[in-house]
Amino acid sequence: MTEPSSTPRPQRAWRALCPNCGAPVEFASAASASAVCSFCRSTLVREGEALRRIGVSAELFDDHSPLQLGATGRHQGVGFTLVGRLQYRYPEGTWNEWHLLFDAGADAPPRPAWLSEDNGAYVLSFDQPPLAEPPALDGWFAGQRVLVDGRAWSVASVQTASLIAAQGELPRPPKLQGSFTVVDLRNERGEVGTLDDADGTPLQWAIGRSVALAELALQGLKESSEKTVAGRSFACPSCGAAMAPTLASTQSLTCAQCHAVVDISLGLGADLACYAQANSGAGGLEPQIPLGRTGRLALGAEGPLDWQVVGYQERCDLPAPGSDDEQTFWREYLLYHRTAGFAFLVDAEDGWSWVRPLTGVPTVRGEQAMLEGRVFRQRWRYDAKVTWVQGEFYWRVQRDERATVTDYDGPAGAVLSREETGREVVWSLGRTLEAGAVQTAFGLSGPAAAALRRDATPLTGKGGGLSQGLIILIVVVVVMLLMSRCGSEDACSDERATFGPASTEYQQCLARQQRSGGFSTGTGGGSFGGFSTGGGGHK
Predict the structure, then answer these.
(1) Please, which of 22, 376, 415, 480 could form a disulfide with 369 given CB 3.0 to 4.6 Å?
(2) Which of 533, 183, 284, 522 minimizes the C-alpha distance to 385?
(3) Alpha-carbon distance 364 to 381, whole Å?
(4) What is the DSSP string of 319-386?
(5) pLDDT tens, 6-33?
(6) What is the secondary structure of 495-512 as a DSSP string?
(7) Separation between Cα atoms, residue 196 and residue 163, nearest integer Å
(8) Which candidate, 307, 503, 292, places its Cα nearest to that of 387?
């Protein structure tokens, strides 16, 4: 008697030989229409009992995904196996669609589904019947409200995409040439809808929901996402210094020597586009949390996880022409975890916070947004742009990348943010953090720890004690008394010590002192949200 295997195996399979190389090609489901030969990458279509070769799939872009063919899991009590993979490219990056085959029931064949993966976020979706009245995708734009299949949706993104490569067993032949339009939709019920015209008409229509890998009880994942960077190093096209990305999913990174931003989205063998940066960073300003540092933080339902700092960017708001508002700068750290994906740690003048992109959308009425039974009130609405970047990013960082940002405050320190770039709309959810929690998580001490605490503790959601207005009044009086006793140079000593003499913060402080004769009140503000491009699309 043989021991039962811990890995489920199909009870029936169909096998044939690849007509190109002769290697065996196996189908686990009679519903699968095509497969990719694992030996020669020929794309094969089933025709009765034979296979026909229709093309050759390109090599897969090796990324940091923990998923691989053959991995198994469970959803709502039913087991499944990853049997196929499609990899797509769009202007800002790449994403994967994994073909799942659920175990067959007593009276039902295996049920196909898709696990969409984009920068560590996942959505499990199922193909829907063709729409009775398919919409025309021409003219659709991010942020638009549309009616599809009798339900209201919000358009999260409209992108032009193309298939890079295919692997394994697929329910229909992949489109190997040309591009197509893909539209991501979200609604208040947390559903994700996807429309694409890759196969012309009828449109492909799928609906799904966000899932975490931990929920799927996956087995057979890759042991590690670490990649060997040997052979991936290249010379900076600006100064010639050696560069090497550490995450295979990286679309752009900065040169440690000249700080140029290099676009590697087309591969290291392509002509590498780059642009030079010129602002406070060139004067020696470095992130308060060093790139590569790992800290343990609870940034969601998964609980405490080890998050690594892989990227850093400075951003600023863009006051309206003729406005008396002063320009405000803040900092964002891109954090990475192998199975949880990416998050943003935000350092604004009113304190620290973290956010992660949402899959669904809140219900918005006027200046209020409701999400998961919580009411958020609009705090700021402004245009923002990126002024300085360091490290690696999963999107193609553009010069002066701009977004329209709306920030909301919620109960108990919760924060909500909406960012629109024209290409997509991304909602992000998180909460405020104490500076001490950031210091402890990343093991910071000395000047770095002091710099973290330069901002006041966020007042959002705090109860008891003095009122916020009284606290502000006391602070203003104390500051005025101190300013009356020192010159403008001394008044900016904290900014100079923390950020350096060439920093934006220090130069702005000096300018304020010169304009006001020694005292300035500023305007506040700052984004709670992470950068929108690439985050949350195509799930």
Answers:
(1) 376
(2) 533
(3) 14
(4) PPTT--PPP-EEEEEEEEETTTEEEEEEEETTEEEEEEE-SS--EEETTEEEETTEEEEEEEEEEEEE
(5) 444 443 445 666 666 656 666 554 445 5
(6) HHHHH-TTSHHHHHHHHH
(7) 12
(8) 503
